[in-house]
Amino acid sequence: MSQTWIDDCYAADHQAAIDLQSFEDNFAALKSSFSGANAPSNPIAGMWWLDLTTHILKHRNEANNAWLSVWDMANNKPVIANLISADFAAALKDAAAETASLRSLGTGAQQAAAGNDSRLATVPDGYVTEVKIAAAAVSQAKLKTSQGEVSTTSVELVILTLPGGEYGFWPRIKISITPFGVYTGNLFTLSTTYVTLIGLQVSGGGTAYAQQRYVASSGEVFWLFLLREKSTKAVISTYSAPDHPCFGNGGDPEIVSHPFGDYDKDLQEIICVAFPQKEIAIIKAEVPKGSSLLQHINDVYVIDDEATPAWPTKEVTVGLPEDYDYLMAKSGDEVETIKMVIPKPINVLCKKLKLR
Asked: By the 8 A CB rule, do 259 and 161 touch?
């Protein structure tokens, strides 16, 4: 096929037949992508050439000094000889965030798991039955958790409900002043349902705090409960948590309606402050370094007895469906959580806070 390209077809001394033949040869070269066993003799940047010796479709580079192999015509596949391993790492294996990417199979630390990967536990028939997660593979940022806290100033042992219930981790405690001490215990059975309780007792003054992180909170309303004496209006104990006030009772707030295990209705009263998300975010921004949210509230705010806000009527998450199997859930599946309006307990007063 023609690989000759004639640039000047319009010279005054040309014969018509010769010029028409030049036009025809030029169109033939274009039509065949300058097919030939040898490279065209007068290439320009952007020109195509079908190399009939190697059966490779080639393209002239911008500098017009080299041919770039594009497609293997004999095997109908792209030519990747010019790609280097770094190209795969940057463009394919580790793509930009939220962009699909590839990893080579194998057992390396940064490779996808092959069928015989030691990180997968299998049974004799070869089916994977368990996935082993490496140490520190799941960060706190990826694990949805919240943190709640209880406190007391009582010199007598008081029973408080820890936030999180069965989803909670082991609590940690502190006292607001030194060198006084705090006694804690958590072996109390004061309820016919499963409740995570802790006993706190202050020795010599200050306020004792117990803090617990727990899994899968709803965080739709931030709850603050305060126990105080009716006669003196002195606050004895407090409870705070960004979750529904079910207090570890399997998602049923009607079983135990407050967090104070040894509440005496004749001598004490329970105050509830329900913060919307925007309001509690403002208070969280005020918390000084080294303090906690509940300690900051105790130090800076007091109950506003003149305020009588309405009990929250917003539906909040109280649990998952009983038949929900998270092991069978697919990534991206939406779960219809159980939501309800928390009923107002008869013995709980709804109030607001104000600065001291």
From this structure: yes
Residue 192 is classified by DSSP as S
Output Rg (C-alpha) for the chain, integer angstroms: 37
Q: β-strands 315-319, 348-350: how paired?
A: unpaired
Instruction: Classify residue 270: in a domain, yes or no.
Output: yes
Domain span at residue 296 reads 145-322+333-355
CB contact at 8 A, 324 and 251? no
315 falls within a domain = yes
Of 65, 70, 31, whose CA–CA distance to 54 is shortest? 70
Nearest to 215 by CA among 166, 149, 250: 166
The C-alpha atoms of residue 149 and residue 119 are separated, in whole angstroms, by: 37
- Helix ranges (H only) for the chain are 16-31, 85-88, 277-286, 293-300
Amino acid at 227: L
Which range, 88-92, 144-148, 242-246, 261-265, has the best average confidence (pLDDT)? 261-265
- Residue 189 φ/ψ region, left for φ over 0, alpha for ψ in the -120 to 50 degree band, beta for the rest: beta
Q: Tell me the C-alpha to C-alpha distance, in Å, between residue 153 and each of 38, 62, 212, 255.
A: 94, 80, 19, 27
Asked whether residue 63 is domain-assigned, the answer is no
Q: Per residue in 192-236, pLDDT tens?
A: 566 677 788 887 788 988 888 887 666 678 889 999 999 999 999
Q: How far is CA 224 from the centre of its chain?
A: 26
**Partners of 87 in the beta sheet?**
none
The pLDDT of residue 134 is 65
DSSP secondary structure letter of residue 245: T
Instruction: Tell me the residue ranges of DSSP E strands in 45-139.
Output: 48-51, 56-60, 67-72, 77-78, 105-106, 112-113, 120-122, 128-131
pLDDT tens track for 39-71: 888 888 988 888 989 999 989 999 999 999 989
Total of domains in the chain: 1
The single residue listed with the structure tokens 């080639």 is 58
77-78 and 67-72 strand pairing: antiparallel
- Dihedral sign of CA atoms 331, 316, 198, 261 in order: negative
3-state secondary structure of 270: strand
**230 falls within a domain:** yes
What is the spatial distance between Cα 16 and Cα 24, in angstroms, rounded to a whole number?
12
Q: Tell me, yes or no, if the pTM score tops 0.85.
A: no
